[in-house]
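Example record

The entry below shows one chain as it appears in the dataset: sequence first, then structure tokens.
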Amino acid sequence: MILDSFSLEGRVALVTGATRGLGRAMAVALAEAGGDVALLGSSAPPEETAAQVRGLGRRALPLAVDLLHATPDDLAGLVNDVVTGLGRLDILVNNAGIIRRTPAIDFSERDWDDVVQVNQKSVFFLAQAAARPMVAQGSGRIINVASLLSHQGGILVPSYTASKSAVAGLTRAMANEWAPLGVNVNALVPGYFATDNTAQLRADEDRSRSILERIPAGRWGRPEDLAGAVVFLASDAAAYVHGTLLAVDGGWLAR
């Protein structure tokens, strides 16, 4: 039956940025589909999200690693903690990200380096670390979280645009190498969602209005709008999907 191919029963996922927002919603969705979930927070383990996962009858492993300062060795250790704690690793959702808003002409090196570290460098090296046990077992799913600014330039966010453009390219590059080894690498492209990262935009009435006028669906995305897409890419239903950027944007890119 086709619905059986969406089941994540017996699989283990690691979701970064799982404390709130999109990360929490995707972690809960993976648990609802039958998966056990390791949950990464930056400053503290995401205990509230872990409680939601356990409430669904699934195992949860809350962890904390500061991706702003994490080295490749730190990220390899994180993957080892997941494999040790939950027995295996089948799915990585590279969701954590930060944004800094300043006109490009005034943008600082510090804001450039911080955003690239979290959004680009840690995404690659965590995917690399996760791919090793996945390749060894002959299967796995890596789901990066890209952005509308993987396709567009944006304003006031040069390092964010650069990092999310890199996520799109890295997703394709990793898919090219790892698809023959049984690992699917794809990316989600969320549109304008009501999260902490967009609070400043939503608070600006003129900017918010201009954004909503561009979205055919006529509303900001809700974190749960990503649930179906992340379960699809994590499941056997997406077995022949490699190197794809799946937009969940209310139609923004179609406009």
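Notes for this example: The helical segments are 21-32, 47-55, 72-86, 109-137, 158-178, 199-203, 205-214, 227-234. Residues 139 and 229 are 19 Å apart (CA to CA).
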